Automatic annotation (TrEMBL), chains A, B, C:
Listed name of the protein: N-acetyltransferase
Superkingdom as given in the UniProt entry: Bacteria
InterPro entries: Hexapep_transf_CS (IPR018357), Trans_hexapeptide_repeat (IPR050179), Trimer_LpxA-like_sf (IPR011004)
Species whose genome carries this gene: Novilysobacter avium
Keyword match Transferase: yes
Membrane-spanning parts: none
Length: 264, 264, 264
């Protein structure tokens, strides 16, 4: 089966689909009407791009599929379903069987893990990392450089079931560890760290460490030392750079470059 | 690809399959032997209906597939797998990649979200709402108008691993918020509310609010006021009607109609 | 559609694939290059075996797929994805849409439930049981006869995000109940029992019962009595035998047989 590139003969492609140069569509992938895919994007097997919204069931004749825009340089692994009416920035990458519903606006250089469920009508910034099986509720706002680990849920209904949804906001560089739940309307502050299995009921200050059920602030991220050598670990941008724009030069130097560029 | 209706030529259909009028079977959907699908049902791409039970592996020649019955007016989204030997009532609707195993009896007007895992040998009533990624263990009983949110697990084994399973019972109108676990044999009472990330180890009284790990009763649902306007929120049937039989008229008037009809 | 056996005509098979005798490959299953499948293995529909590793995206021309070895007598249900560069022992069985990434070494007689996500670069012993939706992080070591229930996560990053991963070790016969999280570097002792929804931050002694968030030792497994008849339940190998090598004869007699065999 060699290393397949190009449009596989079993792929099904709808009307008014725009494919950039050097796009690969894997075995049996379905692209519905009105999908735009940027250059050099690779789509795996059994994906569905431009999945029709619910309106198709109530009015199958009159339904028109909204545009799905997928940026250039994306890697979309097999079994992923992305609805019509969503925007994905450049260099998107995801695992298998991800679901992204309508009305999601997703920035560039975002990675989303296997089985994650993006409910749509949400904003996800640039360089965001969602690990496997993350659940992002409607109306969530996830800003740049946020990390969210497996089985985290961003909720939105303060009085379930109701019609008054209030999203969660996660500020830049915040980290939410596995199995935590963030209740509706909560803001997780910049560079904050939410420990595993926490239930976060109220706003988390910038740089705070919150753990427990119910979640309580127990420290500042600046109190955390490496268990290996005792050195400071957070803010993580100063100790980790893989896949980040400051990779190889460090966050401080990169910031300086940005300032030099702006002033230059 | 227009708005496809009908039996897609790539669908595979087994022996003794009964399709109602105006049924749609999506791209590459597989329908195994002895499946009955009601009128006006729409099945998405890549579904498997009538998945054979485990007996086929031990006796592939002698195995006969039990009947799967799917009611009329269902919407079954792509990637869903429903086993042989299950019953789904009318107006069923589900998200993507749902799994429903054998011996599940599911009422009418039920909605089940993406990736939910119904283990089978369980009873689910009418107008039940399961959000994404809900896990319903064997022997669970979920009654009418129950709402269960993402990553909730209804367990069944008091001494894992053992052969003495004891299911959970969730009474009418109860609500279980995200990431909660209900331990084996527990009954969650009518109109009760289990908060997010709770571990429920003992029976929950009707109309009780239980939160925490371990879960404790902290209030009555009648104590909860809207965070927006301070008005009562629960019982939710009095403040929410979308998709419910009292939609547009209110629960009280609907109940009155039922009484009038019975006496009329 | 009869009870299908053999290689389905819609299956796609790559180069240098070795199939044992009496192998079934289901509808539309994809087998990439350099996969070895043992005798009498049954692979369901829509599976992907030998999924290429990430290197294919950076060097599609030069990439060569590592070997995936699947032992004899396996049952792999539909939608499962197993990466190249992994080893599965004989009599493996899994549910639907399981993901197993590269560098996983999995023993014999292992069962893995629907939607479980094995991140790869991990060791899983013999007769291990993972229920639905279990997440095994990189560098985890799960020894023989371990049981792990739904939504459990074995983590690995003590300072997320970082490059210094430290896996969890789960010793023989340990049981981890649903929705529990084991933090990086923790060892769960032999025959220990971690209760549902626990957050385990430190090593669990052999035969200890740990529950809560944070998890605390509350008992020995020998203190637990059956809720049905008051008899001891643990160590579970003495009260449960389904699918185990001591099935029908009991653990003690089986151990005696092993000793007799060794000395005979």
């Amino acid at each position: 089966m060699r290393n397949f590139q190009g449009i596989h003969p079993t792929a099904l492609i709808g009307d008014n689909v725009t494919l950039g140069t050097n796009v690969t569509l894997g075995v049996r992938t379905i692209v519905y009407d009105n999908v735009v895919i940027g250059d050099n994007t690779v789509v795996g097997a059994d994906c569905i791009l431009g999945e029709p919204q619910a309106g198709i069931y109530s009015d199958p004749e009159g339904y028109r599929n909204p545009v799905l825009n997928i940026g250039s340089g994306a890697i979309i692994r097999s079994g992923t379903i992305i609805y019509a009416g969503t925007e994905l920035g450049a260099h998107f990458e995801c695992g298998h069987r991800v679901t992204i519903r309508e009305g999601a606006r997703i920035g560039h250089h975002v990675r989303i893990g296997t089985l994650s469920d993006i409910q749509g009508h949400c904003d996800i910034g640039n360089y965001v990392r969602l690990h496997s099986n993350v659940h992002i509720g409607h109306k969530s706002v996830v800003k740049d450089y946020v990390w969210i680990f497996p089985y985290v849920v961003l909720t939105n209904d303060p009085h379930p079931p109701s019609n008054t949804l209030v999203g969660v906001t996660v500020e830049e560089f915040a980290v939410i560890a596995t199995m935590s739940v963030i209740l509706p309307g909560v803001t997780v502050g910049s560079n904050a760290l939410v420990g595993a299995s926490s239930l976060v009921r109220s706003d988390v200050p910038d740089e705070a460490v919150v753990v427990g059920n119910p979640g309580k602030q127990v420290a500042s991220i600046r109190d955390i030392k490496s268990r290996f050598d005792g050195s400071p670990v957070y803010p993580w941008c100063e100790t980790f750079d893989r896949g980040m724009p400051w990779e190889g030069i460090g966050y401080t130097a990169w910031q300086q470059q940005l300032r030099d560029g702006q002033s230059g």
